[in-house]
Amino acid sequence: MALLLFSRPRAFWLKQLHQWHWISSALCLAGLLLFSITGITLNHASWFGGHIETRQERLTVPVDIKRSLNNQVKQSTGALPYVAPLPRQVEEWLDQTLDIRIGSRPAEFSETEIYLSLPEPGGDAWLALDLTSGDLEYERTQRGWVAYLNDLHKGRHTGTAWKWFIDLFAVASLIFAITGLFLLKLHGKHRPLTWPITGVGLLIPILLMLLLVH
């Protein structure tokens, strides 16, 4: 079966490689643009200082919210402090009141305080709630669109869906590169500079890593 497959004529392989190459390139287009541009912005962060915006809020939670949190702490069978998701009622109230998305992020519970870290691409946020007084302090810092795109490049605080996107983009990029290499081989006889240029493209990063990266 394998011998039959590899005995196919050159025209068959050209058609297959061109098809896989253009499909993978189409799938990679948006990702290649994003990661190429953010490669520059990451490498020259000082060029893109951006404007940092900080939002701070202080408020007192309703009695039923405070009671729900105190009950969760009292019902805990483990040692304090411990980490657990907020009750659904509390999560919905915070989402509506502060216009945030907590999701299933765990909070740190202690006897007197609840602390929740809310990192996000291009920014950071946190809230602290005093279980005795019911006073809540919330702070959010945003560093602008460049920082947001840079964090997408690094997969920093981007969630599961974006991590899957990066994995799929990496697979599509591998297909794009490998099919491109085979196409170079098939067309190389008629293009004398094919392999010298390919060799230079391979040699430059290797020399830089060995001689100049420290």
From TrEMBL:
Residues annotated as transmembrane: 20-42, 164-187, 193-213
Q: Does the keyword Membrane apply?
A: yes
In terms of superkingdom, the source organism counts as Bacteria
Q: Which UniProt keywords apply?
A: Membrane, Transmembrane, Transmembrane helix
In this record, what's one Pfam family?
A: PepSY_TM_like_2
Per its UniProt record, what InterPro entries does this chain match?
Answer: PepSY_TM-like_2
**Tagged with keyword Cell membrane:** no
Leader sequence range is none
What is the designated name of this protein?
Answer: Peptidase
